[in-house]
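Memo to structure team: turn this sequence into structure tokens by end of day. - J.P.
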Amino acid sequence: MREKKLSRLTKTGSAALVSSVIGMMTVGAAFANDKLVELQKDEANWVMQGKNYSADHYSTSKQINKKNVSKLSPSWTFSTGVLNGHEGAPLVVGDMMYIHSPFPNNTFAINLNDPGTIVWEHKPKQDPAARAVACCDVVNRGLAYWPGDDKTPAMIVKSQLDGHVVALNAETGELHWQVENGDISVGQTQTQAPFVVKDLVIQGSSGAELGVRGYVTAFDIHTGEMAWRWYATGPDSEIGLAKDFNSANPHYGQKDLGLKTWEDEAWKIGGGTNWGWYAYDPDLEMFYYGSGNPAPWNETMRPGDNKWTMTIWGRDADTGLAKFGYQKTPHDEWDYAGVNVMMLSEQKDKSGKMRKLLTHPDRNGIIYTLDRETGDLVSADKMDDTANWVKKVDLETGLPIRDPEFSTRMGHRSRDICPSAMGFHNQGMDSYDPERQNFYLGINHLCMDWEPFMLPYRAGQFFVGANVWSYPGPKGDRQRGIGSGQVKAYNAITGEFAWEKMEKFSIWGGTMATAGGLVFYGTLDGFIKARDADNGDLLWKFKLPSGAIGHPMTYTHDGIQYVAINYGVGGWPAVGLVFDLNDPSAGLGAVGAFKELARNTQMGGGLMVFALDGKGPYDDLRDRKSTRLNSSHILNL
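Reply from structure team:
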């Protein structure tokens, strides 16, 4: 889809497409939605990246628990045959597991009764030029599943780096439809996992570092036809604001700000892409996500608040129209792209009122909790006390109270800004334990120096305008280049941290919590670890073949609970290792931050699956040995 076609669809599409979508909503859509909800409740499945629509990444399984987690051992493994960063996690539906890879975005279906045999595979042919415009490695954050209806079979949906969204028959792997959602010639790429709601596939976009104007799009799951598309910047008619937009919080801003908060037509190349994670409330029929950083990074080149970049959105799933939008970092100066995970919970606030909440650990070092019905700001706490660009967030206005010492400006190298552009939190999928009412956060403990410069916009070329030097934060060891990670347990109501633990490198992939009282996560230097959810004590770890930047998942099959995680170091933190870079400011500051990573791991690509005592589908020798032992015992009698 070329840029002209995108513009034409937008200009002619808003009202007509929304009206068309409302007309298409049928009983079948509701049925598909209900079926996905039911599948999420079954611990045999892991049907979406966040485990469920709440994106709480929490499993009620407790066969693996504090008492026996030390007995976890490898059960089986799978190699994708691809290097580079392996983000996201596989999906499990019934007997089938679906595994993805980074570019070239291969997909594999395997039967869990015999995971050594590939049932089908999909290996797309893509324009290799897509690699050249990918910001930070050629990662992909995973697959989506749609359960099918009486018109269309169950499908696996994926995004490709070259801008395509693809739907495959989940049983056969046959191509059902393919649509173009971006144009790599202007820098539009896709790394995000699609998100399925009702009969819609919701897909974001990447490329803000190349001056791409961000948007979110919905496609009809049956045909691939575009249902609606809304942008982060520009006129209200293209942003998609409901008539009552921000009526509960008019101080957040309402009309015409996608134009008025930009100079001239800078909004057309103003970023605001969304390549992170979505959540959905089936009762409210609203979905939630964050738009990212404005372009370019150099704030001098784009005066104003730059709405609606850096915004938490609450949109109607059928029409895509926004009920609320809360901008966390107006006029961003540090690339604090706000696309991070949105986790939904139902909790009592400090007054004792039960509320539907949304909690979002942002790249800017603040953990925000909003009422997800109205957008009301409930709390905004520092993720770590070393965050220094902001003194606090004013809960009445929603605005950050900045510390001018850590602002950026032309002709000046600002030093020791915390967090770095990589954020105290990035793309990791974190977790919420409803029993303990704790959020378990994987954190990047990184700070930076920042020096902006001027540059012209050229379509399809990087449009950043800043040199960045990143390094471990004050609690790490800057001389040795380690101590850039933390794991924390956080209560959104009290604002308190139950515990926190330091790690050698950033926890890039996120966490998974279970009813067994455990918190699992992977590390950049190649470990999967399990900690006690109550106190953070380390209970188990295993060295993977390569670093982990994906999130753990769990499923139960034939009575056995398994824990799985992708391995394959890469992504933004490992660009120095992957592309053999040495300049500390290269990789948008990542090379200096992780200068020691190559001494701890190397590239790889695959999946490792664990179970207690390594039990699994290939236990035939174990079973025969047990039979022989039992026979000998009987003979001895």
